[in-house]
Design brief:
The chain is of the alpha/beta class. The chain has a single domain, classed as Rossmann fold. It is 28% helix and 19% strand. It contains nine helices and eleven strands. The strands form two sheets. The protein has a nine-stranded mixed β-sheet with strand order 2-1-3-4-11-10-9-6-7. A two-stranded antiparallel ribbon has the order 5-8. Helix 4 links the parallel strand 1 and strand 2. The longest helix has 18 residues.
């Protein structure tokens, strides 16, 4: 059921949270209502069921605080898509917050994963908040990063390494995408095919490294222009999605999520569902860093041109 009133919707989320009633918890409608036509597109694109049966009831925190630029489209559409995804598939329930007070061991305890949905410039200046987040992931829980979740932690190297990389510009608005590891279970959504996408695409800088990350998707520069290559990383390795293990926990990151249209594309919603199920611990997948694989997987390239 979708609650249209922002006040009632916020109250519903507050009741779900339970464990931290002092927090300012906000649901999607508090940001701004999506047009009904867009809501319908999201609903029609959602996966029909969980990819794997949850081992136990799962709860996911949708955290979308911005201390810099705010991607309102991605936040509104993304939070709604994840909320409805959990309801429809039964894979997880959701609570939405932008309150830093959630980052205590007690408040995070009920959650299996945190989705950083288009957060920006988070500093985590309180040492207790930092300690709680690191204990959460290292202790066996999950982190999911959406789009600008790599635009954070510039003052906190350990968290930047946890997310996998740092934002270094967005010089592309259309790109060819290759499957770096086509047999990997988290890429099943793409049915063994590369693709093109129109979206604000991120350039990433260190601590990004294939020595630490299992890269799933990256840019197929061979199908793009010379300028597209020039504005990217010097090593010509422009990643889009990856996973990694941090302590006993799991991290999934995907650059897609700037444009609200991302959240009504069926393969991408399936990819995010699989990423969340990986992060909470239900979908098992190998996170061996890409550089350590032998033999190296043969990528599946994008089509010669957009369809």
């Amino acid at each position: 059921m979708r609650i249209s009133s922002p006040l009632l919707r916020g109250a519903a989320c507050w009741l779900l949270a339970g464990c931290f009633c002092v927090l300012a918890v906000r649901c999607t409608a508090a940001e701004g209502q999506l047009p009904e036509a867009d809501v319908q597109k999201i609903e029609e694109a959602l996966p029909e069921k969980a990819t794997v049966k949850p081992a136990q009831p799962r709860k996911v925190l949708l955290f979308s605080r911005c201390e810099g630029f705010r991607h309102s489209d991605g936040i509104v559409a993304g939070n709604l898509a994840f909320e409805l995804m959990g309801q429809k598939t039964g894979a997880f329930s959701t609570v939405v917050s932008e309150d830093m007070a959630v980052f205590t061991s007690e408040n995070l305890a009920p959650f299996d994963a945190i989705v950083f949905n288009n957060t920006t410039t988070l500093k985590f200046e309180n040492p207790a908040h930092r300690e709680a987040l690191m204990a959460f992931i290292k202790g066996g829980k999950g982190i999911v990063g959406v789009h600008s979740s790599t635009d954070n932690f510039y003052n906190w190297p350990e968290a930047a390494a946890m997310m996998g990389g740092l934002f270094d510009g967005h010089p592309w608005y259309r790109c060819a995408v290759k499957l770096d590891d086509p047999q990997h279970p988290l890429l099943a959504a793409f049915d063994g095919q590369g693709f093109w996408i129109s979206e604000e695409m991120y350039k990433l800088r260190e601590p990004y490294s294939r020595d630490r990350l299992r890269v799933l998707l990256s840019m197929d520069l061979g199908k793009m222009t010379a300028k597209d290559t020039e504005v990217g990383r010097e090593d010509k390795d422009n990643p889009i999605a990856w996973i990694q293990q941090v302590g006993e926990g799991r991290v999934f990151y995907c650059s897609f999520g700037h444009d609200r249209k991302i959240f009504w594309q069926k393969p991408l919603l399936q990819f995010y569902l699989d990423g969340i199920q990986y992060a909470v611990g239900d979908l098992k997948a190998d996170a061996t860093p890409s550089a350590k694989l032998s033999p190296q997987p043969v990528p599946v390239l994008a089509p010669e041109a957009p369809k």
